[in-house]
Amino acid sequence: MPATSPADGTDPLAGLHDDLLAWLPSQRWFPAKGRTVAGLRTVAHATVSLPDELPRVEHAVIAVSFTDAGGSAEERYQLVLGVASSPPGDVEYAVIGRRPNDQGGQDVVYDGLADGRISRLFLALITEGQTRGPLRFVPEPGTEAPIVGPGRPLLGEQSNSSVIYGERAIMKLFRRATAGLNPDLELHRALGRQGSHEVAPLLGAIEGELDGEPMTVAMLQTYAANSADGWSMALTSVRDLLAEADLRPDEVGGDFAGEAHRIGKTVGAVHIELAAALGTRPLDAAGAAEVEEWMLERLERASGVVEGVAEQHDAIAAVYRGVSTAGPSTVQRIHGDLHLGQELRTPTGWLVIDFEGEPSKSLADRVRPDSPMRDVAAMLRSFDYAAFHQLLDWEQSVDGPDPQLERRAQEWAERNRSSFCDGYAEVTGTDPRENPALLRAYELDKAVYEVLYETRNRPGWVSIPLRSMRRLLTDTGAARR
Ligand SMILES: Nc1ncnc2c1ncn2[C@@H]1O[C@H](COP(=O)(O)OP(=O)(O)O)[C@@H](O)[C@H]1O
Ligand SMILES: O=P(O)(O)O[C@H]1O[C@H](CO)[C@@H](O[C@H]2O[C@H](CO)[C@@H](O)[C@H](O)[C@H]2O)[C@H](O)[C@H]1O
C-alpha cells in the first residue's frame, strides 16, 4: 500500500498548509478559534485507499502551533482527506484546497467524511476487520455488523465529527489526536461488556499509532433512532413554563421532573456499572488534597482571564476546602463532562453518550478516578443552564431581566435538580444532597470551568455560569458583595 511518512524528510501536505490554516478556523471541532497560529506541520500521514480504489483516501495527523498564551503551544488534530480530480458535487462545502497530480492536472482535496464513498469504505473495513497501513479497523467482538452503506455527516454542534449510517450506526472521528486509548471508547467498551442498558452498544473502532503508542482514531456504535437529547427537551419544557409565567413548573403541561428523575436513575446506574467494571477506592486525605489542588489550579487559570472570577477568588477557594472536610467518599472512573446534551431520550429510556471527559483536559487528567459527585454536580449545573438560557435575551434587552420569569426559572431549576437527585438516590442508595460541602465544591468548580469555556466559546452566555457562581457562594455566605 502506498504510504508516505514525514520521517522521509518530506511533508506530504506541504503544498496545502495555507489552505489548511484558512480552513481550520471555520470547523466547529477546531477549538482554537481566535488564537494566533504560528504554523502547521504534518506529524503522520498515510494513504488508506488501495491504488485502484477511488477516491484516494488519506489519514493525517497535523500539529498546529500557536504564539499566544491562550493554551498549549501546539495542538494535534486528525484529518481524513478525500483526493479526487473531480469530487462529487455534494462535497463542495468540504473542499480544503487543490494540489498538483501525477497527470499534470490538479486534484481537489476535501474533508473525507463528507464523501459517502469514504464513510462506506471505513464501515466495510471495520466490519471485515482489515488493516490498512498504520490503521487497524476493529469490529467489537460478539456484535452484529450493520448493513454497509454510505454515511451522512452530522452537521450539528460537535467537538468531533460523526457520520450516521442509515439510522443503524454512528461513527465518530476524534479530531484531537492524542496517544493512548480514548476514554470514550474505553468506557463504552467497559460498560458494554458489563451489559449496560445505559449506553449505545459499541460496534467497533479504528485504531492507529502516534508517538509509537496506540491512538484511537474513531469509534463506531449503534445509532439510537428516534431519540431526542435532554438539552432540547429541557429547553422545550422551560419555554412552555415561561410562556405561562403565572403557573408553577409543576402546573404546566411540559413539566420535566419525571424525565429528570429518570435521568438521575440512569446516571446512578452508569456509576454503579463503571465501579463494577473498573473498581473504586476510598478518597483518603491525600486524594482529597489532590482534588482540591486541581480545583485551585483551574481557579488560578480562570482568575487570570475573567475578572468576575478573580474578584471572588478567596471565597471560591474557601468552598473548595469542603473537599477535605466533607468526610469519607470514594473515587472511580466517571463520565467527566456530563450535561443534558450528553443524554439521549430513546423510546425506551435514557442513554448517556460521549465519555471523553472535558475537552480541554489532558488525557491523564481525563482518565483519573474522581468522585461520582463531579458528574452529579455537572448535571445540576446543566439544569441551571437550561432554566436560565432563555432569559439571556431579556437580560440583554433595554427592559432588563423580568423578576417573575427569573423566579419561575429558578423554581424550574430547583424542581428538576431535586428530581434528578431523588432518582440518583433511588438507584445508588446515596443521596448527593447529604454531602452538601462536597457537592457545592464540585458545582462551583464546574461553574468556574464554564465561565472560562463560555468566555472562550460563547461570550454571550457567560452570565449563566457567573450567576450560578455567585449563588453558590451566597449559599455559603462566602460571597464578597
Ligand atoms: N449512539 C447515538 N445515537 C444517536 N445519536 C447519537 C449517538 N451518539 C451521538 N449521537 C448524536 O451525535 C451528537 C454528537 O455526539 P457526541 O458523542 O456528543 O460527539 P462530540 O464528542 O463530538 O461532542 C450528539 O449530540 C447526538 O445528537
Ligand atoms: O459537549 P462537549 O463535551 O463538547 O462539552 C463542552 O460543551 C458543552 C456545551 O455544548 C458545555 O456545556 C455547557 O453548556 C451546556 C449547554 O449548551 C450546559 O447544559 C452545560 O451544563 C454546560 O456545562 C461543556 O461544559 C463543555 O465541556
Provide a descriptive summary of the structure in words:
The structure is a single chain. The chain has 481 residues and is α+β, with helices and mostly antiparallel strands. The protein is 40% helix and 20% strand. It has a 7-stranded antiparallel beta sheet with strand order 6-7-11-12-10-9-8. A 5-stranded antiparallel beta sheet has the order 1-2-3-5-4. Strands 13-16-17 form a 3-stranded antiparallel beta sheet. Strand 2 (56-66) and strand 3 (74-84) form a beta hairpin. Helix 4 (230-243) crosses helix 11 and helix 6 (285-305) runs parallel beside helix 14. The chain starts with 16 loop residues before the first helix and ends in a 5-residue tail after the last helix. The relative contact order is 0.09. The model has no long low-confidence stretch (mean pLDDT 91). Bound molecules: adenosine-5'-diphosphate and the ligand O=P(O)(O)O[C@H]1O[C@H](CO)[C@@H](O[C@H]2O[C@H](CO)[C@@H](O)[C@H](O)[C@H]2O)[C@H](O)[C@H]1O. Residues 154, 158-160, 162, 170, 172, 200, 221, 223-224, 227, 229, 341, 344, 353-354, 356 line the site of adenosine-5'-diphosphate (ADP). It catalyses: D-maltose + ATP = alpha-maltose 1-phosphate + ADP + H(+). Its EC number is 2.7.1.175. Monomer. Residues 23-115 form the Maltokinase N-terminal cap domain. Keywords: ATP-binding, Carbohydrate metabolism, Glycogen biosynthesis, Glycogen metabolism, Kinase, Nucleotide-binding, Transferase.
